[in-house]
Amino acid sequence: MSIDYSEKIPNNVDLAGDRKLQRALESWQPNFLNWWKTMGPALPTEDVYLRTAVDVGREGWAHFGHVAMEEYRWGVFLAERNHDRRIAFGERRGEPVWQQVPGEYRADLQRLIVIQGDTEPASVEQQRRLGETAPSLYDLRNLFQVNVEEGRHLWAMVYLLHAYFGRTGRTEAEALLQRNSGDLDSPRMLGAFNEETPDWLSFFMFTYFTDRDGKYQLGSLKESAFDPLSRTCEFMLKEEAHHMFVGTTGVDRVVARTAELTREHDSEDIAAHGGIPLDVIQKYINFHYSVSLDLFGSERSTNAANYFTAGLKGRWQEERRDDDHTLTEDAAEVAVVRDGAITTDEVSALLALNHDLRSEYVKDCQSGMKRWNRILERAGMDRRLSLPHVGFNRQVGEFAGHNVTPAGDLVGADAWNAKRDAWLPTEADKAHVRSLMRPVYEPGKIASWVSPPNTGINNKPIDYEYVHLP
């Protein structure tokens, strides 16, 4: 399913065959371009070496080349349709998937699409000024690649709203451009997407932890009985993988440089030497991981149960699960706080679906800890990085309102506040990290607080001129 770039809106959904829909999206397009101009990347560029989707197949799906950012061709791309696909879970398991929205599920499906759609432009807004402090042209290009693909993911959700939800869908599509990250009057819908991303350590943590949440949310929506949503999310996951690569390898490089400076100066106090101390890296992990856990919602959720039973949103890799895919007789254990202690409750597996998805995410996040600790081990350091307890610093779910240490101990508010600065980034920590954020725009050069990448992009050398600046 190749993508036609001769169209005003590149697509592989035959927009030309639906003139009403085409006109509606073409009327939304100027608003999107205005949003990109005002809320997208703030750093002016001549062009950027970007990846552009040209096909939705598994091989040769993208083209690389220098593109002027304002001329990037955002469009609507869905994975190929499987005409034999059947609903894999819930009470309608085994029935053909839906090509149109069933009336009884219209409101729920629209809400799921709007929430997902709201996260896409939010991250662009959060990251808009990072180009001004990029540690290298390689990193600057990766930032812009993430940004343009988040913009395209917004297009993917807007297409669904316009194509399948009528007037209310068009209204919601407009609202996606009216909310802004951190705006006091009209903020983004989810808390993590109203947090600042003021520095590149935060950006690497965001693309590791928060974009990884996106992976699992998209993965569960990919299972949906609403086939256009499933096909949309399947293709988005292909692009999302690069965003997590940026985060994973970015933290790799920060940890490696921290280890190098620690060894060179025989001290973990490397702030004065232009590095980010390991304690600060751990605090950033604690913060971004805990904020991202909140995105999964409450551990016990009737909404999640209803979505599953109806076939709207499945589990991660649903068809690989070895059960009946209805869960009406199954149970699960979730952590709760009771009588001043953390314990567990047995609940219906249907009510624990958010917990199930979050558990998959937690296991995946552990892979980063293993990577980063191998770097420390190879550098001869005894210190190790770790994920805090899932109850630490939580604002949503069973642990909201409770004071849980990174080790998983339940303590009083005074005890927690007394140790807060040892667990979460302080203003002094943030100020130090910001002080290191000086731009490096010379090809092949890199900031002193991060190690160079191991390889370039698309087989290009590291000193390739990935971004041309005015």
TrEMBL record:
InterPro entries: Aromatic_CoA_ox/epox, Benzoyl_CoA_Oase_BoxB, Ferritin-like_SF, RNR-like. Gene3D superfamilies: Ribonucleotide Reductase, subunit A. SUPFAM superfamilies: Ferritin-like (SSF47240). This is Benzoyl-CoA 2,3-epoxidase subunit BoxB. It comes from Pseudonocardia eucalypti. The gene is boxB.
